[in-house]
């Protein structure tokens, strides 16, 4: 659920695979290749495009943080530092 606008999201199997693999360190392209293309019958380009749209929607609702760089480990406030 989005804290920004109370939008409720339900995830299909592919979206769930992406959500579970989104660890702040692994690039979306790698997640798509490793999780989506391997487990679901989908072409890499289509999977990448759909994954980017999904991640963009979650980001716009404040549910997922998108970054060009991996989240540094052992930073204050991250799970690794606690």
Outline the biggest β-sheet. none
Distance between the termini: 25 Å
Q: Number of helical segments?
A: 3
Low-confidence residue ranges? none
Rg from Cα: 14 Å
Succession of helices and strands: HHH
Q: Please identify the structural class as seen in this structure.
A: mainly alpha
Question: Quaternary arrangement of the chains shown?
Answer: single chain
- Count of discrete structural domains: 1
Indicate the mean pLDDT. Answer: 84
Overall geometry? globular
What share of the residues lie within helices?
40-55%
Query: Tally of extended strands?
Result: 0
Brief description of this entry?
The chain has 82 residues and is mostly helical. The chain is built from three helices and no strands.
3D architecture notes:
This protein has 82 residues and is mostly helical. It has one domain (13-81). It is built from three helices and no strands. The chain has helices at residues 13-21, 28-39, 44-60. Helix 1 crosses helix 2 (28-39) and helix 2 crosses helix 3. The longest helix is centred in the middle third of the chain and has 17 residues, at 44-60. It is globular.
